[in-house]
Amino acid sequence: MVKSLFSKLSLTTKVSLSLLALLTVFSTILTLIFYLYLREKIIHHYHEKLKLFFLQMESLERYVKDDLRPIIFETLKNYPFQGDFILEAMSTTHISKRVFSYLKKNYPDIEYERISFDPINPENKIKPFHKFLLKLKASQPYYQGIFSWKGEEYFVMAEPIYVSKDCLKCHGKLKDAPHELVKIYSLKRDFSWKEGDLMGFTVVKVSLKGALNEAKALALSIFLISLISSLFLLLFLEGFLYSLFLKPLKKLTDHLSDLKRGLLPPNNPVDLKREDEFGLLAESFNAYMKHLEEAQKALKENLKTLETLFESITHPIALINKDCRVELANKAYKENLYKKCHQDLLLKVFMEKRPFSEEIELPEGKTYQLFLYPVFAEKNEVIKAVVLLEDITERKRMEEKMILTEKLAALGQLTAGLAHEINNPLSGMLLMLRQLQKNNLSEEEKKLYFNLIEQGLLKIQKLIQDLLTFSRATEIRKEKVSINELLEEVLDLSSYLLKKHQIIVKKDFSPELPEIYVDKNKLEQVFLNLILNALHAMEESEDKILTIKTELTEGAIKISFKDTGPGVPENIRNRIFDPFFTTKPPGKGTGLGLSVGLVIIERHGGKIYLDKTDQGANFIIELPLEMEKHGNY
Ligand SMILES: Nc1ncnc2c1ncn2[C@@H]1O[C@H](COP(=O)(O)OP(=O)(O)O)[C@@H](O)[C@H]1O
Ligand SMILES: [Mg+2]
Fold first, then answer.
1. Is residue 565 in contact with ligand 1, taking CB distance under 6 Å?
2. pLDDT tens-digit profile of 535-553?
3. Residue after which a domain boundary falls, among 154, 183, 214
4. Is the CB of residue 537 below 6 angstroms from any atom belonging to ligand 1?
5. Do 204 and 349 sit in the same domain of this protein?
């Protein structure tokens, strides 16, 4: 409550109030110290005074006791008519009391007493006031200090009085006491004092009331003076602080709030003609505002550039959140009709924090490549995703065309040899048919010929069927196949060509390969090209060995085609996978085989590359085991 009230006050008032509190505390402490100092001074003063006084009285008492009294006693013995006791000359107490009464005129505030527990003169009886003296121990010769009685303070010095033998003459048995004394004080009983008893005290005391009151008044006036002067100081300080700090500050804050409310243009400088820190502050404030304005301008321009850039991207592109809600989209995205949310893929992007891509085929014949990129916040967290659509219809069509062209070329090579291959058995079969027409054959011979003809025809039928299935299948379809069997089929298809070129095929197939989902026909095409490439490469070679090896590696099936040809020259190694790159004469090569192979293998999520070997070429294909059963590739 007080705190919130305080926080609402202006800076100057805050400073002034704090200072006031501080000064009050300060002057209180100062006054207190001053008062305590004064008090100490007063006590010291009285101490010195009383000490002297005490000594004087003590000396007097000693004089009476040791010098005067014995003589008077002796003298009185000689003049018995004078009586045996003269109070004015023999009682230490009486004399000192009298002497004191004269002294008192000069020391009005000092009191002197000789008191006793059992006095001769009842006036000298110990009073309740003297109770504090009883707390003294006998060993202490003096008691001195401040003592409070009924709200008044006293400085006291006291000395205990002990009974000695010669005291008992007057303070002892009634019969020993001088008659005169008994008469004066009308004593009626004995005193019971024994030698060594504590009889009473000699007390000198002074009331501090007057002196302390004076000191208090002095301290109070000092306190008031310091308070009033600090108030004046504060008033002055407030004015000073106001013009020094608050005024320029207010000007700055007013300027700022005007800026905030849009009453002033941002580049309007605050007008503060001062040379001090506030002037500097205003200057840097103005500079900062100017800088801010420029930065804002630059930012706006940058934003505009970015917007133009964003809008002029012809690919549909958008920023989406976890729920597929579009937060920002370019023109192409807004105009694009395809808006489907790929929730599973999006989830993967958010979970695995990396980009994902998918091919989407639309019923109307268009193909899109969908890219999803993660957008990171701080702490490596994915908060949004960028979705980008790329129309790859044309590219796909081109690729398909290239695949087909290459396939046809390979088929051409296969069929060219095939005609010759078929022609030879056909001539034999024709001869056999003519023999059969002659009708002069035994049943046994007829059966043998028919069988031979049937076998030949079946062989030709299989060859043609294989070729047809290879050439026909164009639709994209994945099925579960054994890679080893697939290789056998391709080797079958090209067997007569390999035979014709006297190529030895070495098969090193791993028996433990699992079956995987692939586009059988497309993969056959890739294998066929590698086999035909090896065949072409080894045309001039002495040894013509093609080693085909399959093996299971971690998460993949690895297939290698190694030949004993001259290998791929270093200078063309990085071009052999380019479309239309060939070193072969027209008719023999299209230059598409490897590039098409690359497309097909990559569509399967695999890799194809030329490995280093000592001799010949070694092409490697790696196909992942974990492959999507369905969907496009
Ligand atoms: N096994 C191989 N040995 C040496 N060179 C090869 C081998 N396979 C491919 N090449 C080189 O790569 C080129 C491209 O091959 P490819 O893309 O299949 O097209 P093409 O066979 O129609 O020339 C070939 O022209 C040849 O120079
Ligand atoms: Mg080729």
1. yes
2. 999 999 999 999 999 999 9
3. 214
4. yes
5. no
